[in-house]
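Researcher: I'm preparing a figure for a lab meeting and need a structural model of a single chain. I don't have an experimental structure, so a prediction will have to do for now. The sequence is pasted below. Please return the structure as tokens so I can convert it later.
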Amino acid sequence: MERLHIAVVCLLLFGIYEAVSETYVCGPQNKCDCFTDIQGLVMNCEGREISKITELCSVIGNTSTKINVTLKAGRNNFGNFNATELKGCERLYELDLNFNQISEIKKHSFQNFTNLEILDLSRNDLNASQTEWPAAFLPKSLRTLIFNGLPVGETVIPRYPNLSDLSKLQTLKLDGLSDDFDIGKHTNRLKELSVSGLSFYSHCNISHISNSTFKQLLSIMKLNISASSVRSISAGAFEHLHHLEVLDLSCNRKLGFISMENISYGLQLTNIRSVNISYLYNTFGLGTELFKQDLCYLWNTSIEERVLAGNRLTVFETNAFILLPKSLTTIDVSENKFTFAPYLLQTSCVVNVRRLFAGSLHCAYNPSRYVAEDTDEGNQACEARMNSRCPYMQETFLMELASNKSCNYIHAYGRIISLETIFPLHLEF
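Model: Understood. Here is the structure written out token by token.
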């Protein structure tokens, strides 16, 4: 009887949730869509040709709900506003104002926004990269700030905005600049940073990542530097990011594999779980190879997922697989063009891999779709590796490591007795 009562209650709650989750029209002249999600009430007014934000805030101010309210008001061409026009929106939990041609926000506009945790001001005309840009208007309660796609000044050297007053900020998305990353005294509290240039409206130019570029991100867990025009990375660039778990370097087509040894060296001192180094080469480039020195320090990391898609990868150097860490459970090598070589006889060296993604190998591409790729004039396929000082490529060490993984070590110029390929024991087909 008690179980039946619990089941009835669960069904009633599910019915209530389904009822309040239905989308209905709302906002001025019923131009918006409203629905509830796990965060609360969402008013979606994106691109609805609403002339003033005050029309939306007055509607929100007249609602009696006490749950969190999200307002999505992007692409409405609002322009500038002040505190009076925002009256009624003070209790918002999330506010999306992207692509509204906002060039100035008065100092006290958000002074009563004590509940606002997520703010999207991307694709507006705020000159946030200018020296001494005033950021005092931003609400102190912010935990997530989306700030990319803003104009980068041509008359002054662009600088990152000073966000020192945002002591609760944990997630930040903004444009990447060539200067060292510094947004003020609370920079080291960030958990997630994205300076990705994958969005077509972003301005990202981080040609070199040095030991000091991200030196203040002491608490960072997720770092996205994809499509940021990176050409080179220093050996100590990530070694001080001890809490780093996710690193995305994808779509930096001028980077190639030449900095892979430096990347893996710094990751030894982090808590890294996932690394994305896909699309580091041109779509129509020549075949590439991963050498032992590129993977040399990886055995000493905690990487679980590694993405290598779209790199024109044809072959791994013999015995390179031995250096992949035991923690590795997922590998993505899609959109490459592998050929036969001894490395195929060492696939069992990745002992704990469960998921292998290898689709679209040797696939054909349409040249007209890739005319805008961020390419380099040089031939990346002929890039020369620097002399490596990594101690883990010595034959004795590789033999011992291979023995611990129960996989074959292939001796140089030696005879391969067995041509049998042994797949990883835990691979899920």
